[in-house]
Amino acid sequence: MPTSLPVHVIGGGLAGTEAAWQIAQAGVPVILSEMRPVRPSPAHHSSELAELVCSNSFGAKESDRAAGLLQEELRRLGSVIIHTADHHAVPAGGALAVDRGVFSQALTLQLAHHPLVELRREEVTSIPSEGIVVLATGPLTSPALTDSLQQLTGLDYLSFFDAASPIVVGESINYDLAFFASRYDKGEAAYLNCPLNKEQYLAFREALCQAEQAELKDFERETAQFFEGCLPIEELARRGEDTMRYGPLKPIGLFDSRLGDFRDPANRDKRPYAVVQLRQEDKAGQLWNMVGFQTNLKWGEQKRVFQMIPGLEQAEFVRMGVMHRNTFINAPQLLSPTLAFQKRPHLLAAGQLIGTEGYAAAAAGGWLAGTNAARLALGQEPLTLPETTMMGALFHFTSSASPKHFQPMPPNFGILPELPQRIRNKRERYGHYRDRALADLSQWQHSHDLALQVARA
Fold first, then answer.
1. Residues of the chain under the 50 pLDDT cut
2. Residue 40 has what pLDDT?
3. Domain ranges in the chain?
4. Pick among 1.25.40.10, 3.40.640.10, 2.40.30.260, 3.30.360.10: CATH of 164-321
């Protein structure tokens, strides 16, 4: 049944701004609540909507790159964020970058002057119990609203400090060196293991100790002190020569069966001195997480040092390790691919709060949550995007990944379903992913054309 109540969007970042715009463009009244400037944020510098906090770049703009494909999908779906970014773009080589002050001001004016948008400068301290609501409060969700969300779900679901390990594309791993094994051959050989001899281990440890770290912001530094049990790999390296070997690089019980029987004393010298383990990140086994490798090293340093690990010499990283303030929900336990809460279909979420990373990904979540909120208000069924599109793959991942090991994910080709044919050339392979995604998006738009026209009437 259609509702006469306005949809309530909480949070005026990229996701909330996009969601509010899509709802209003569908002809549905929307209340957009943003706590700034009533309650300042430790990361923001203005009270404008959609402020770009970290950089002015949306990433690579070519559509055969993951970020660029996501931008192109949003462009074709009428994203106000991408449209405004295109309009206020500045030279940045192969990236889509904007004049961030003008960009945010333009979006603030657009939303403030839309006849169906009511912009409220207020802190929302609890999730409304009635009506259709979109949560888009980002990684700096206020403590009061965080408590409300935790009470709603009843889960210990939030990561207040995102200590995440790098994720590697499976195709880029050297399987001549890496081997599948479980410790002492117990259970399924679910881990991929990269063995190091003593010389390799000591060189790797020295590189970790000397690598350059990223600076934490003041408010992140305050939070980091609570994570003694989740130390960065470089800190473990500094604590002693063997600390990593008794921690995440423990070699005990791990042996490459291709070298013989691990129980044979004759194979004692073949046992690794240390082992880096990788855990499967997605159902298809296209992505692998470096177990225990949360790190605060700069991204370029991570790539340089981690490619010293045997088997990862040519590793392609879809996300680097991070340690920063980042509140996000355990989306696979809570959300459907429509971005609605499974147990409360009229409550939706978008942006970094659901475990996506990047400006374009935030806008994508805002587009889908806003579109589906409007459809719910109009008495229509919510939409699910094709998994072969970057948007669809991203939200399929956030709703179906392992809840136990869920970490935020940026757009990347590793989450897309595999192509029917194997293509070794990476640029050519990505081009095929793009062509399939855009063709399927076009067909999907056509199949929903009547419904979308109604929703936007």
1. 219-220, 222-228, 450-457
2. 66
3. 7-159+326-455, 164-321
4. 2.40.30.260
